[in-house]
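Shift notes (night). Ran SIMPL domain-containing protein while the centrifuge was going.
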Amino acid sequence: MNGSSTASGITVTGTGSASGTPDLLTFSLAVETTAADLAEAYRRTADAAGWLLAALHREGLAGGDTATSGIRLRPETVWHEGGRQETTGYTASADFAVTVRVLEQASGVLEAAVAAAGDALRVGGISYGFSDPASLAAAAREAAWRDARGKAGQLAGLAGRALGAVVRIEEAAGGAPVPLHAVREAALPAGAMPVAPGPAEVPARLTVTWAWGPDRADGP
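Came back to this:
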C-alpha cells in the first residue's frame, strides 16, 4: 500500500483503469522508389503517392485521415576499397499517417493501398485508440480516486485518526491504452489481411493528500 503520514496529514497514491474496445486504427504507409537520378526518383514517388491517396479516398477516408508526415530524398552509395564512395542512384519516399475510423474497413484499406502503390508501398506500425478517450479516462480516474480514498481511510483507521479535507491532488500523466489479451473476431473475405483489435485499458494514477480531521472522541 503506497502511503505516507506527517503530523499534518496523510498522502496516498491510488491507481485505477477503465477498459474498452478501441474504435480507431492508425498506421503509417509510405511509398518509396529508387532511380538513377534524383528527379526521376522524385517523380516516381510522387506518382505512387498520388495513386495511394486516391485509392484511400475511394475507400472513404477523409483528407484529414491521410496526412503527409514526411518526405525524404537520399543518395544511394557504395564504398570501394581505398575509401572511394560511389553514388549509384537516388531514393525518394513519402510517408503518410492513416487513420481508419471504421475498423471493419481496415483490411479493405490495406488491400486498396497494396493495389494502388504496388512494390513501392511500405507499411509501418499499427496502433489503436479511442474516438472518445475522455470518457474512459474519467472512469479510470474515478477508479483511482476510490482506490486512494480506500487506502487513506484504512490507514487513518489503523492510526486512530480521522480524515479531514483534501489539500492536494496530483495526477500522473496518462499513458497510452494498454492492450489486453482477448482479440475480437471478425469475418473476413478470403485473402484479406486480418486486423483485429482486442480490448484495451486506460490507466490512471492519483496522489492525494488529506489533512487530519478532528481527533476522535474517546469511547465510553
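The two ends are 32 Å apart (CA to CA). Residues 24-74+88-129 form a domain with the Alpha-Beta Plaits fold (CATH 3.30.70.2970).
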